[in-house]
Model the fold of this input.
Amino acid sequence: MSFDAVYQTLLGRAGTDCGAGPAGFKRLLKRLGNPHLDYRVIHVAGTNGKGSVCHLCAEALQAAGYKTGLFVSPHLFTPAERIRINGRLIAKPAFAKLCQTVLAQEKEKLNFFEILTAAALLYFSQKQVQYAVLETGLGGRKDPTNACLPAACLITSIGLDHCALLGHTLAQIAREKAGIIKSGVPVFCPPLPRAPMAEIRRAARAVSAPLVIVREGDPFTLGDINWFKGYMRLQKGKTVWPLHILGEKQVQNACLVYRACRFLGVPDCALKKAFARIYVPCRFEVLRRQQNRFIFDGAHNPQAVRVFVDFFARSPWSKNAALVCGFMRDKDYKSMLRVLAPHFSALYITCPPSVRAVAPEEVRAVVPRGEKSFFFASPGRALRAAARAYRTVAVAGSFYLAAYLRARRGLTGPSDCD
Done:
């Protein structure tokens, strides 16, 4: 089967009507030869920030000389982005072959994410990586990535997202995320609100896992931001560390990665090199095209949107900018709109390219009163209209929307494939 045919097969497993579950997934891995036991694993969970943290961890391990696998989601431009080694995306023929290998061992009907997780774990084994950085797809306790036996666990944040599956309180969601904590394995996390922090402490204590709470300032504080070149200067004592990724929480993410990687023996020189060369699209990514400046951000839940607008308000472009936004039906788009609207001169509301997207006509009913808003069925037309009227245009509300429009404007950025 071709790459496209295999991917279409996978998309047919994207619903909630199938899945082997944790026990069935472990049986699948056993039939595949337990590939997840062939390398050390860094396991990352959290409501927001886990993608940036995974990329930073993988970059640091690679800079330290380790052959490093990275498994993240969602993808922005191609599903091959989800599986990479030392920054290089898996080749499409290898992706197709691995997925077929997994499906050939199927006894219980696997879902989309289980197939991809198994393919990634098998690929990393075949390529003899020394480390693999794994991002949970949803929650942690029941996630297929939780079959791994990690060397370190990281929990980046706790917020209200995927509530129908994970719970409607921060404590319930934290309980699910804390499911990645393993016996004796250190877990690193930032300070969290009282209820979720209590859940993580309880989970760590139950399995004698050392809990390391990493505060901003340990060891980095923010020096300044170069908005036009897209990097932040972090201060570590008297030294300056450039971090080539922008965002309100990126200093905290850098502290978390630093402490976890230092525990694993990664030296400062490798971490500093990794921070300077990191590249993660659609995380407050500022790109220019002709007279316009575009800011692409994957903020897709109320917590992430609040972080995005706080950072945007500090930027030199916040006074007269448009927002192109669209949302997924299973997200709290009413709350997101209330947070986003006051920060932009006009809203260009459209539909992300997904069957789960909420239509612009439905969003119209919840736009805050008095906000200047326009509605487009086509994301491309929404972006063009915004770019004609405003020099600065932000895109947020959905990773799918940000990635689609970034590619449509010819701004796909660097991509290095096998």
User: Anything to note?
Assistant: The first helix runs from residue 3 to 11.
